Amino acid sequence: MKALNLFLIFFIAGSLFLNAQNADRKFVSLNQKKDLIEIKTSDGDYQIKPYSDKIIETAFIPNGEVYNPNSHAVVLIPENLDFKVTEKENSIHLKTSGISVEIRKNPFQILYFHKNKPLISERKGYVKTSAFETLDFNLTADEILYGGGARALGMNRRGNRLQLYNRAHYGYETRSELMNFTMPLVYSSNLYAVHFDNAPIGYLDLDSKKDNSLIYETISGRKTYQVVAGDNWEDLINQYTSLTGKQPMIPRWALGNFSSRFGYHSQEETINTIDKFLEEEIPVDAIILDLYWFGKELKGTMGNFEFYKDSFPDPKKMIADLAKKGVKTILITEPFVLTTSGKWDEAVEKDILGKTKEGKPYAYDFYFGNTGIIDIFKPEGKAWFWNVYKKFADYGVAGWWGDLGEPEVHPSDLQHATGSADEVHNIYGHNWAKLVFEGYQKDFPNLRPFILMRAGYSGSQHYGMIPWSGDVNRTWGGLQSQPEIALQMGMQGMAFMHSDLGGFAGANLDDELYTRWLQYGVFQPIYRPHAQEDVPSEPVFREPKTKALAKKSIELRYSLLPYNYTLVFDNNQKGTPLMRPIFFEDANNSSFINDKTYLWGDSFLVSPVVQSGIKEQLVYFPENSNWFNFYTDEKVAGGQTKMVSLKEESIPVYVRGGAFIPRIQPIQNTELCSLKSFELHFYFDETVKESKGHLYNDDGETPNAFEKGKYEMLNFESEFKNNKLHIEIEQKLGTDFEFSSKEMNLIVHNVSSKPKKVKGHNFEWNKENNTLTILISLKNSKTKNLKIKF
Length: 790
Fold this sequence. Notes:
By secondary structure, the protein is an alpha+beta fold. 19% of the residues lie in helices and 30% in strands. It has 13 helices and 46 strands. The strands form 9 sheets. A 9-stranded antiparallel β-sheet has the order 5-6-7-8-9-10-16-15-12, covered by helices on one side. Strands 1-2-3-4-17-14-13-11 form an 8-stranded antiparallel β-sheet, covered by helices on one side. The protein has a 6-stranded parallel β-sheet with strand order 18-19-20-24-27-28. It is globular, with a radius of gyration of 27 Å.
């Protein structure tokens, strides 16, 4: 049997790698160094360097060029890894305990494996054409491809030639081939990823010619890529986010509800809006000020970077008054300084703008006026821009919205300190986020920054970027593309990708659409309704029924804060997305392209309603689990597609059998979030013999709280055997975290008969809804054990 398996592996390898190779490239020599090998060929040199047993980097340096070691994405330092190199007559093998490379000498070719399983191979490798420098690879006939950044193309992106040029798509709906945030990154259903580690613009061709090829095309720069392997999807994404950096913990308040529109015109309007939320008792944690904070008009004022005193006469008092109400202030900024703005002369004098080839400030026209762009790649430009943020952070501004950071208009002949516009275009937003993040590390080291941006690059998560999906149309078509975009970007490291809830573009008053979008918003990363002001985005200004339904969704969002904050922690530690495609655990063919149903964390199955007027919809339930309706506890067996009835007040949401869901009562803002009293819901399923869960908690604002020991962790375990349910609650305190007592209501679902006994505890069994409630006092940090006898 083992021989047969080996035969199949090499048969597959042969079919994968047979297609082509660069016949003109001739092997010359091998040079092994401590941490890499060099392969000299007739037209250039390869450097092949293992980062770990699951990540390996290959760089090609054409004859006449010098190796450029600088990556804008990679932060991982290669491990001191043992690897073995063997040379045979016609091949060279580099092997780690996991990933391995075979270099065939004649005809020349490079092939990649993980634990002897074929991953991918170079087809023609490096080729220079009249327009591009390219890296050319073989694909198998049936693998499904993901990645390339934010697009609306369907989950399987194979068959598309994806432009790598960050560009806004105003008013998009179900299809958008090019959007604000592109990435030179591909994931395969065969459990590997390829990251092309190069910033300049180009294309990512995912077999558009239908010849089983993957081709990266660029105008210039590094011919460097990393192949990343994983044992499963969570592991693969953990490896990629180890390579490019983990997302820091966002502040807890960022999981709350935002008040946002385009835009609030005055201090009075801003305060009145928040007062309306408080009057209606609708939870809210932040308000975002669009471009009217620095000017009365839409055009001509960008780059002022000062409060417009006629409209905002006392911004410090406004920010302080909002803070007293538990509401954070967020300001929009853009990287443009208009020639009509109050800062143009200063920007010219300080020499912080992008330039013409003649060395003069480059001024050009776009929608908002005649402008220059801040050169954030120049130290002086970076420092000047950071001082804007520092000034208003000192006012008490708690977060930043960086808009138009593609940059929206970026002439190709404009020159930055480190290259032309086309060479740095795709990393402008990335470096902008880095500028803000590093500024906080230096000047506000005890605060977690909030950095909302719509354009970035591979690894932008490492600098705390929270991306959104741009100016989506306020239509059902606009809603339909959002789960795909969020799921794809979560896989690519950007786990907080989200949309303007309710839709942004167009004066479309559709209460059903608004309601369904906000219901979907409960189970995606950031809860931020935002739109053009013709139709209100804030629930407080909608008609009574719509407002009531929105309030219900927002209160549910707040009740799930302990669960959601734990997802943020898991993402910070392992890169695991908050929203997860169902193929993460159910690898049947239809799951690989399903964006209609997804997992929220490990425990929730969510199926958004994205069509108008429907009364029922099909939901696929992943195999190997039973699923319980979140609202009724109805049980559905996994491994089937089922037509489910829809309700006006909620979308279909199910909980995995054996899951632990921590919840609190709804609160007005996250400053009131506490585990002093909370609920732990356990979804009992007699087919689940053992299960685990956990709850992470800290102060919600200290950077690297876990690493500093400023945290607590509650671990939950269940065991069911011999008609007895055993639940263990283990409490772990960080080295610098003070214990506080807790009152926990353990609510066990799906208990069809009254238990005979709960050892050491009083309990209530509800016959009507089959729930068992047990009050547990956690008065010290000792482990609690519950034994329930049925």
